Amino acid sequence: MNNNPYYSVSKYYKDTYGEKVYKLPIKLSLTCPNRDGACGVGGCIFCSESGGSFENLPSFLTVDQQLEKNKDYIGRRYKAEKFIAYFQNFSNTYMNISDFKEVIRACDKDYIVAISISTRSDCVSRDKLIFLEEFSRETGIDITFELGLQTANYRSLDILNRGESLADYILAVQMINEYKFRVCTHLILSLPWDDLRDVVETARIVNVLGVKEIKIHSLFIVKDTKLAKMYEENKIQMISKEEYENNVIEFLRYIDKDVAVARIVGRAPEEETIFCNWDTSWWKIRDEIIQTMNDKGIVQGDKSKKIIFDKIKED
Predict the structure, then answer these.
(1) What's the pLDDT tens digit per position in 82-93?
(2) Number of CB atoms found within 10 A of residue 310's CB
(3) Which of 197, 234, 250, 283 has the greatest number of beta carbons closer than 10 A?
C-alpha cells in the first residue's frame, strides 16, 4: 500500500544507505540465561527450542558460510547489494568476549552495512559495547541491538517467565545509548494479561528511552511450549484480531514519528504453531491496520508527547 501512515524500517534503510537493504540471518549454537539456570530455567513460555529462528540455516555452518549462502539467495531474489548481518536466535551476547569478537569480525565484509544483534537486556555488558564501538569506528559498520521487552507490564513479564524486569531493559538501553548504537525493541501487543493502558505506557517508555526502532508481534503459540500447554488447557483467552489491530494503531499513535517500524505483525510457520494470527495472513492484518489508519486520518506519533511539546513551543 502506497500511503503508509507510519515510518517503515525499509524507508529508514533507504534514507540511510541510499537503497534497499536486507537482513542476512545468522544462527549460532547458543542458549540464554533463562534456560541454563543462570537466572531461570525453561525459558520464556512462548519460546521454542529454536530460540525464535524458524527458517535459519543450521548453526554448524560458520558465520562466513551463512552470510555467503544467504547473500547469494536473497541478493538474487531481491536484486540487493547491501545487507545487515542479523544474529537472530537466543541471546547473541551470551558468550565470552573472545568468541563474541570472532563472530562479529566475521561480518567485516564490503556488502555488510550494519550488524543487528538480538539479545536479552541482562546480557548486555560493558566489555562487548567497548569492543563494538571500536569495531564500528574501524569498519564503518553500524550496530543495532534488538532487545525483547514485550511489555511494560511487570505482571505479564512474570507470567511470561521472562527472568528479567522492566528495570533490566531500561538499564540496558541506557548503556547502549552511551555508545550511540541503535536499539530495536520487540513488543507483543496481544498479550492476554495486558490492556490498552499497558500498550500506551509501553509506547511512552520506548519514547522516553530514545529507542530508534520497534518490532511489533502478535502472540503466536508454538507447539510444545509452556504457552501451548496453557492454551490447550484453556488457561488463557486470546484477544480478537480487531483488538490486536486497535492496540497496534494506538501504540503507533503514541510513539514518536521518527521511530522506525520494522513490522506491525509477526509470523511463524503454520506447522510449528497451534495459534497464529487468527488464521489470517500476516500481510492482510498489516493492510487492514494501514487501511484503518488512512481512512481515519491517523498517523504515527499524532498522540506522542513530543508532538504536544513541539506545538507548545511553537505557540
Answers:
(1) 999 999 988 999
(2) 11
(3) 250
Max CA separation in the chain (angstroms): 60
**263: helix, coil or strand?**
strand
pLDDT at residue 53 greater than cutoff 70: no
pLDDT single digits (tens) 116-163: 999 999 999 999 999 999 999 999 999 999 999 999 999 999 999 998
Residue 52, C-alpha cell as written in the block:
525464535
Residues 84 and 113 sit within 8 Å (Cβ to Cβ): yes
8 A C-beta contact, residue 119 and residue 86: no
> Model confidence over 221-241: pLDDT tens digits?
999 999 999 999 999 999 999
Would you state the pLDDT for residue 1? 47
Question: Which residue reads 570472532 in cell numbers?
Answer: 102
pLDDT reported for residue 309: 47
The torsion angles phi and psi of 264, rounded to 5 degrees, stand at -120, 5
Alpha carbons 117 and 139: distance in angstroms, whole number: 17
* CB neighbours of residue 226 within 10 Å: 15
| Coil/strand/helix, residue 168 | helix
Pick from 258, 268, 256: which is nearest to 227 by CA?
A: 268
Using the predicted structure, report yes or no on whether residue 59 has a pLDDT greater than 90.
no
pLDDT digits (tens, 9 = 90+) for 280-315: 999 999 999 999 999 999 999 999 976 544 554 555
Tell me the average pLDDT of the chain: 93
The residue with cell 562466513 is: 64
C-alpha cell at 86: 542479523
CA distance 103 to 105: 6
112-119 β-sheet, strand order: 21-26, 82-87, 112-119, 142-150, 182-188, 213-217, 260-263
Measure the CA angle with vertex 301, ends 175 and 277; round to 5°. Answer: 85
Strands (E), 1-94: 21-26, 82-87
How far is residue 191's CA from residue 149's CA, in Å, rounded to a whole number?
Answer: 13
